[in-house]
Write a structure and sequence with these properties.
Length: 350
């Protein structure tokens, strides 16, 4: 079976084509292309501008994906799209596009939970069997484990997501959003040396990132106002922007490692799967690997092709659901900004 997937819950528009062999085996990625709406430095991406970008690019990306995959419309079994969660206007643009393709081609529609798409693509690419999942992106921060045909949420962000915290700090520093603000913070953090004291807010299995963002914004203002150079109280060395990025990363990633380790202990798992855009961060993977190694476990992660929002994950998760008999009627082909990971019945797993 072959599915085409459309993803556009935020500023990435992705189209993917995937093949599930008839006798089982690994899924075959036939095409996985993406185009990103990049806002100016110091600014976020507005829903209306992002939706306009998706509407402008979706047709040409679909055509390009079919060419790269080497498949005809008649070969496609279903059209999958991101139902939610995400930003309202971009989601609407993708939902309308998916409906158009479904009606034009005479194919079934399959609405997909964005979070489940990340998890299933991560499992497929890495081969992780039954891991604790750390899902970290611009809009979501969740620690998840599978039980009884649901992806159960053990812990999550109480306010803003970890990726949103990084993105907003990038705006404070007025650094480029190309290719991604979190990536540019990661590169600056690699040159940081001084760990500054920042709020560390873990409440049971949940995290809070708004306080640490407010605190790092205050330190940034202090750095910009001190013309003589703000010096570390212990070493006497000058504090720079790289130190701020380093301190923010180290603190928030330590919080994520803590709640992930607690979930591993609770469910008795030795595997961690990191998914979502922030999962590309090499420092997060390193810190998680150190924790897992101490527990005799292992960490699974993918590269930017599959960590960052993409259409192939929507095609894959949608086709898994379609093979169990699930479809989305045209009258139900809506989108929603709130769609919990644990709302989805995972019929394709025992």
């Amino acid at each position: 079976m072959i599915a085409i997937g459309l993803e556009g819950s935020a500023n990435k528009l992705g189209v993917g084509v995937i093949l599930h062999p008839p006798r089982g085996g690994s899924a075959q990625i036939l095409a996985n292309i993406r185009h990103t709406f990049v806002s100016p430095p110091g600014e976020g991406f507005l829903p209306k501008d992002t939706a306009r970008h998706h509407r402008t690019w979706v047709v040409r990306l679909v055509k390009q994906a079919l060419r790269e995959a080497g498949v005809a419309v008649d070969d496609v079994d279903c059209v999958c799209y991101t139902k939610g969660p995400g930003m309202g206007a971009p989601l609407q643009g993708v939902a309308v596009s998916a409906r158009m393709l479904s009606l034009l081609w005479g194919k079934e529609l399959v609405g997909v939970n964005h979070c489940v798409g990340h998890i299933e693509m991560g499992r497929e690419i890495t081969g992780a069997q039954n891991p604790v999942v750390l899902y970290v992106s611009g809009g979501n921060t969740q620690v998840i484990a599978y039980a009884s045909q649901r992806y159960r949420i053990f812990g999550e962000a109480l306010d803003i997501a970890v990726g949103n915290c990084l993105d907003r700090f990038a705006r404070t520093l007025n650094i480029s959003n190309d290719p991604a603000p979190g990536y540019n913070i990661e590169q600056l953090a690699k040159r940081g040396k001084h760990l500054l004291d920042l709020p560390y807010t873990v409440k049971g299995m949940d995290c809070s990132f708004s306080g640490i963002l407010a605190s790092i914004d205050v330190l940034t203002a202090k750095l910009e106002q001190d013309a003589t150079g703000w010096r570390d109280e212990v070493s006497g060395e000058v504090i720079c922007r790289e130190d701020l990025c380093f301190s923010l990363q180290e603190t928030i990633f330590a919080m994520l490692v803590e709640i992930t380790e607690r979930a591993m202990a609770h469910v008795g798992s030795r595997q961690v799967l990191i998914v979502g855009g922030v999962g590309c961060n090499e420092r997060l993977q390193q810190m998680m690997g150190m924790m897992a190694n101490d527990r005799g476990g292992s960490v699974f992660a993918t590269d930017e092709r599959f960590c960052i929002d993409n259409g192939i994950m929507i095609a894959h998760a949608g086709l898994l659901a379609y093979q169990t008999g699930f479809t989305t009627a045209l009258t139900d082909s809506t989108c929603t900004q709130r769609f919990r990971t644990d709302e989805v019945l995972i019929k394709w797993r025992k």
